[in-house]
Amino acid sequence: MKRLLLLIPLLLTLFLIPQQATAATVACTTPTFQSSSTNQRLTSLFTNYGNDNSRHDDWTGADGTYSVRLPNGRELWVFSDTFLGQVNADGTRPKVVEEGGTTVFLNNSFAVENAGKLRTIYGGTPGSPAALMPPRDKNHWYWAGDATVAGNLVEVTFQEYERFGTGAWDWRWHRNVVARFPVGNLSQPVSVHDLPSGKGVAWASGILKDGGYTYVYGVEDQGATKHMHLARVQGQSLVGTWEYRKADGTWSPNEADSARLMNGVANEYSVTKIGDAYVLITHDTTEALSARIVAYSSCSPTGPFTNKQLLYTTPETGGNIFTYNAHAHPYAAGNGLVVSYNVNSFVNTDHYNDVSIYRPRFIDVRFG
């Protein structure tokens, strides 16, 4: 699908060596990787939901896979490219509407988990579904970034992409926005706000609340080079005054001063506090089409992130199949994290022949 086609040229050119920015260090206990295993509950939850044909206008597969816990105890799952429809008894998926089938394909959607059950949220109507963040025209679309809660509002970041020509690769990132949804009504945003977009950084690959600040991690994606950037805003909301991490370890109110802090991260990654340390989890983009999910650690949310550790090698990777965009979810238990990753194929018809491909996988990662 569109997201797959846009990922291919980037995935084929990922040969980078991480470079760390220097900063003052603070003593902390560095988490040491112990083990990883499949998170059966979440993997089964989405597998069973995707295969359930009790409705024909809900989720059968997606990528992106961000989550945020709502004040009412529910879990909001935020997806980018999404299939809606039914699954055939033999594990196949009808073609998308644009190819003469019945499967709806959207660039973004939500799913709400409540007491172990999922419900899909999309825009438009059941008879004519649309993306929750609909494009302004046929040459633009939104993919989702991380989300956060500010009071009774859920703030979900989106990156807008645009086409500028007729060629297959005539597309580019355009800007960042944040859409604000009431916790009690997630069907459409009450407002959409521009986010900083003058540096070519896609905000937010990950969000972390710590010490009175909301830290926003981004990626400057140059295809063969992906650089981490970092911003922060005081308080809980992204709709505020941003400041940007400079190479010298200070903060600036000017986005132009935002520094390339390291490379080797993916377009989606996470930073999570474990004990008194901070763990960055990402697919390893120091090698092409990597099956490796790795962690770095720091004593500060600003880095530098070092001590690279291999957490997991995705078993699906190989042949047509690739995996990407691993990151942790914001409900760590003790020294453990729940990590998701996405599975995809270079061959479009694979998504019709095997519905299990285009669904998130979840693993439990434990540190000592």
Question: Care to give the gist of this entry?
Answer:
With 368 residues, the protein is mainly beta.
Would you give the CATH topology?
Answer: Tachylectin-2, Chain A
> What is the straight-line distance between the termini?
40 Å
* Helical/strand content category: mainly beta
* Low-confidence regions: 4-24
Task: Provide a descriptive summary of the structure in words.
With 368 residues, the protein is mainly β. It has a single domain, classed as 5 Propeller (Tachylectin-2, Chain A). Helices cover 7% and strands 46% of the residues. The chain is built from 3 helices and 27 strands. Strands 15, 16, 17, 18, 19 and 20 form a 6-stranded antiparallel β-sheet that branches. The longest helix is centred in the first third of the chain and has 12 residues. It is globular. The protein starts with a helix and ends with a strand.
Secondary structure layout:
Blueprint: H1 2-11, E1 33-38, H2 40-51, E2 58-62, E3 66-69, E4 75-79, E5 82-85, E6 104-106, E7 109-114, E8 117-121, E9 123-125, E10 128-130, E11 140-150, E12 153-163, E13 171-182, E14 191-194, E15 202-210, E16 213-221, E17 226-234, E18 242-245, E19 251-252, E20 262-263, E21 270-274, E22 277-283, E23 292-298, E24 306-313, E25 321-328, E26 336-345, H3 350-353, E27 361-367
Antiparallel strand pairs: 1-27, 2-5, 3-4, 4-7, 5-6, 7-8, 9-10, 11-12, 12-13, 13-14, 15-16, 16-17, 17-18, 17-20, 18-19, 21-22, 22-23, 23-24, 25-26, 26-27
